[in-house]
Amino acid sequence: MTDLHETLGALRIALGDDAVLTGDTINPRHHSDWTYHQPACPAALLLPRDTAGVAAALRICNERGQSVVPQGGMTGLAGGSTPRATDIALSLQRLTGIEDIDPAAMTLTVRAGTTLENIQLAAADAGLLFPLDLGARGSCQIGGNIATNAGGNAVIRYGMTRDLVLGLEVVLADGRVLNLLNKMQKNNTGYDLKQCFIGSEGTLGVITRAVLKLVPPPGPVATMLCALPDYASAVALLRRIQRELGTPQAYEVMWQDFYRTGVSWLEKPIAPLDDSHPLFVLCDLDAPAQALEAVMEQAFEAGEALDAVQASSHAQARALWKIREATGEFPTRLKPLNFDVSVPIADIGTCVERCRARIDARWPGNRSVYFGHIGDSNLHLSVDLNSVPDADPHEIEETVFAVVGELSGSVSAEHGIGVLKKPYLHHSVTADALDAMAALKAAFDPKGILNPGKVLG
Amino acid sequence: MTDLHETLGALRIALGDDAVLTGDTINPRHHSDWTYHQPACPAALLLPRDTAGVAAALRICNERGQSVVPQGGMTGLAGGSTPRATDIALSLQRLTGIEDIDPAAMTLTVRAGTTLENIQLAAADAGLLFPLDLGARGSCQIGGNIATNAGGNAVIRYGMTRDLVLGLEVVLADGRVLNLLNKMQKNNTGYDLKQCFIGSEGTLGVITRAVLKLVPPPGPVATMLCALPDYASAVALLRRIQRELGTPQAYEVMWQDFYRTGVSWLEKPIAPLDDSHPLFVLCDLDAPAQALEAVMEQAFEAGEALDAVQASSHAQARALWKIREATGEFPTRLKPLNFDVSVPIADIGTCVERCRARIDARWPGNRSVYFGHIGDSNLHLSVDLNSVPDADPHEIEETVFAVVGELSGSVSAEHGIGVLKKPYLHHSVTADALDAMAALKAAFDPKGILNPGKVLG
Question: What ipTM was reported for this prediction?
Answer without folding.
Answer: 0.96
